[in-house]
Amino acid sequence: MEEDFRIQKGMIQEAIETQGHIAIFYPKFHCEINFIEYFWSAAKHYTLDNCSYSLEGLRKIIPEALMFINREKIWKYHQKTLRIMDAYREGLNYGEKAFQKKVYKSHRRVPEANTMPDEGGRLSEAGEGDGSRMIRGGDRR
Fold first, then answer.
1. Which is nearest to 104 in space by CA: 115, 116, 114, 92?
2. Cβ 116 vs Cβ 108: under 8 Å
3. Phi first, then psi: what are they for 48, rounded to 5°?
4. pLDDT tens digits, one per residue of 20-75
5. Are residues 105 and 76 in contact, defined by beta-carbon separation less than 8 angstroms?
6. How far apart are CA 72 and CA 70, in angstroms?
């Protein structure tokens, strides 16, 4: 490829930078580092759960779905994407235990040092099980 083609900025980037702003483009096919994807996902789930499945119902529920996601939740989506980008910068691979430990922060995860419920819901010392387990609604004690 010719050198002048490689350094040529796209029309959108040039328009943005002409106005004194910075254009940041995310890598293609990496929706996990774009926090707006989490916002859209939450809005779609809200719509799915609350829609009457008619065109008029969609026209009513979509603006409501977009307003349903509060700023705190959007901020949490952003923080998660920053943790994912940090994990990639550290050379971690998606799906590895180290990647998951770096990225996923949840009040629903029991730290490895705590006691863990076994298959029957009884508490056992950490290390006897798999070390960490997701607590779902009915498992909280």
1. 92
2. no
3. -60, -40
4. 999 888 777 788 888 889 999 999 999 999 999 899 999 999 999 999 999 999 99
5. no
6. 6
Beta bridge partners of 124: 116
Looking up tokens 């004194």 gives: 20
Q: Answer yes or no: are the C-beta atoms of 68 and 61 closer than 8 Å.
A: no
Which residues are within 8 A (CB) of 131 and not within 5 positions of it... i.e. 6 or more apart? 112, 116
Higher pLDDT, 114 or 46: 46
75 closest CA partner among 40, 47, 36, 103: 36
Q: Is the pTM of this model over 0.70?
A: no
Residue 13 neighbours by CB under 8 Å, 6+ apart: 23, 25
Cβ atoms of 132 and 117 closer than 8 Å? no
User: Would you state the structure tokens that stand for residue 62, as one six-digit string?
Assistant: 């979509």
